[in-house]
Write a structure and sequence with these properties.
The protein has 517 residues and is α+β, with helices and mostly antiparallel strands. It has three domains: 224 residues, no CATH class; 114 residues, no CATH class; 59 residues, Arc Repressor Mutant, subunit A. The protein is 33% helix and 21% strand. It contains 14 helices and 17 strands. Strands 1, 2, 3, 4, 8, 9, 12, 13, 14 and 15 form a ten-stranded mixed beta sheet that branches. α13 crosses α14. The longest helix is centred in the middle third of the chain and has 20 residues. The protein is elongated and about 100 Å long. This is Glutamyl-tRNA(Gln) amidotransferase subunit B, mitochondrial. It is found in: Mitochondrion. Belongs to the GatB/GatE family. GatB subfamily. Subunit of the heterotrimeric GatCAB amidotransferase (AdT) complex, composed of A (QRSL1), B (GATB) and C (GATC) subunits.
């Protein structure tokens, strides 16, 4: 109870697509394993189209879907939102419950400063307007895991409003192109968490744990479909989705189900549904009763308005421990992902999709930046090696960046050898493969031991090219006939003879001179 939670509410987002076939759920077994576990109170973000469908066939009408997400996210704090009880994962049931958590008469809520600061920081990170004055409300509903009969939230005037979040969608045949999208965020509000219901089917009883609901993330998806230009359709709410994968599947299924229902002359009920992850479908839980569902709101009488300040409104001589300064929190924000991606593109000239990859892999951006600091190689070459060779080896062996046998210093030294033309690109990959064996050798030592240095004796290389041309007269004839493959074949033969120690560009230059003489 009273666990520190944020609630982000998203605006409805619509997109258009054709009629989709399917959308039925054939129930062959009892619906076990549903993600709906009646956890209440957390935090809430916005919605966005997750996919597009095929073009409509002739004579078919387009449909538009509107999806709004309510995301409940746990705040990282040591104590609960309105009491001093600890927050500790997997604590014994009801071992972290204060008198207020148990809703004993006469107990009053005390707002956690850390939770307010976290809410402000979240709002700033999501480009929200931070309200200098926000209010708390009671949301009334009756359930065993809510002994007070109401939940403290921010319905009327939340702490942050009107935000946005920019993200990337993979597109193209190889899903290598990243298209930036922006989703709108209606509001962010602090909300008390409920308890957790533990259902014992064997004894046909339900036990209540008032420590807190331990879920760190829960999403409720509100979904409706309509024809473009017509009024919005009746919405359904899919409750308590606990993973991004299940969220996407539930939205996909529910859109298809509603379209099928309407295409077949049925109607959509304003109801709450759950997602059955084993069957891959949504199932009805209960009907909603009016616009406010089963809840009604009133101002919270035991909490005054929450007042925040910025540099312009901060009272003179105010005690920093007694006020929360929005601008001071803004200064503590780390560089946000969108800013980092933009900086990478501007500073290093990399593609936008490459910047997304660097940020999406834990530790990869730090690895890349450390290599950049220690090498003379061009940033584009560093990007290529980190995203292709280095990341490829990691994925092949299912390793995290922190588990890599190749350090940023080792890769930087290898790229310096390549940049100074000490070794060829083929030899560089041989050296990288040796580094991956964890033998503790430096790139320089590997190059020296395996004699991978590029040939510096141009006279010897010219003699070798001459010998290859004499040994392969047909290839030379093809080359004179302007066969583009012929020169590459000769280059390959010469490099093979030098164990890949010869520079392909130098070989090509020598061959072209001999052909023209």
């Amino acid at each position: 109870m009273a666990a520190p939670m944020l609630r982000w509410v998203g605006r409805g987002r619509r997109w258009t697509f054709a009629r989709v076939d399917g959308g039925s759920c054939h129930r062959r077994e009892a619906p076990t394993g549903s993600t709906s576990n009646r956890i209440r109170g957390r935090s809430s973000v916005a919605q966005q189209p997750l996919y597009t469908t095929q073009k409509p066939r002739k004579g078919e009408h387009k449909w538009a879907a509107v999806v709004g997400l309510e995301i409940h996210a746990q705040i990282s704090s040591n104590s609960k939102l309105f009491s001093g009880s600890q927050v500790r994962f997997s604590a014994p049931p009801n071992s972290l419950v204060s008198f207020f958590d148990a809703s004993l008469p006469g107990t009053l809520p005390v707002l956690n400063r850390r939770c307010v600061e976290a809410a402000v920081m979240t709002g700033l990170a999501l480009n929200c307007h931070i309200n200098k004055k926000s209010l708390f409300d009671r949301k009334h509903y009756f359930y065993a895991d809510l002994p007070a009969g109401y939940q403290i939230t921010q319905q009327r005037l939340p702490i942050a409003v009107n935000g946005s979040l920019t993200y990337g969608v993979c597109a193209g045949k190889k899903q290598s192109q990243v298209i930036p999208k922006t989703v709108r965020i209606k509001q962010i509000q602090l909300e008390q968490d409920s308890g957790k219901s533990l259902h014992d089917d064997l004894r046909s009883q339900t036990l209540i744990d008032l420590n807190r609901a331990e879920g760190q993330l829960r999403v409720d998806a509100n979904i409706s479909v309509h024809h473009p230009g017509e009024p919005l359709g009746v919405r359904t709410e899919v409750k308590n989705l606990n993973s991004i994968r299940f969220l996407a599947k539930a939205i996909d299924y529910e859109i298809q189900r509603q379209i099928n229902e309407l295409e077949n002359g049925g109607e959509i009920l304003n109801e709450t549904r759950s997602f059955h992850y084993q069957l891959g479908c949504t199932m009805s839980m209960r009907d909603k009763e009016g616009k406010q569902d089963y809840r009604w709101f009133m101002p919270e009488p035991n909490l005054p308005p929450l007042v925040l300040y910025d540099a312009t409104s901060l009272p003179t001589g105010a005690d920093p421990q007694q006020v929360i300064n929005i601008d001071q929190i803004r200064e503590t924000l780390p560089e946000l992902p969108s800013v980092t991606r933009e900086r990478l593109v501007q500073q290093y000239g990399m593609l936008l999709e490459h910047s997304f990859t660097l940020l999406n892999e834990v530790g990869l951006l730090e690895f890349f930046q450390n290599v950049i600091k220690e090498t003379r190689a061009e940033p584009k070459k560093v990007t290529s090696w980190v995203l292709n060779t280095f990341l490829g080896y990691l994925k092949q062996q299912n390793l995290a960046v922190s588990e890599s046998p190749v350090t940023p210093s080792a890769l930087a030294e290898l790229l310096d050898l390549l940049d100074s033309r000490t070794i060829s690109s083929v030899a560089a990959k041989q050296v990288f493969e040796e580094l991956w064996k964890r033998e503790g050798k430096t790139p320089g030592q590997i190059v020296s031991e395996k004699q991978l240095e590029l040939m510096e004796d141009q006279g010897a290389l010219e003699q070798l090219c001459h010998s290859m041309m004499e040994a392969h007269p047909q290839v030379v004839m093809d080359l004179k006939k302007r066969n583009p493959r012929a020169i590459n074949k000769l280059i390959g033969l010469v490099r093979k003879a030098t164990q890949n120690r010869a520079d392909p560009a130098m070989i090509k230059e020598i061959l072209e001179k001999k052909l023209s003489s």
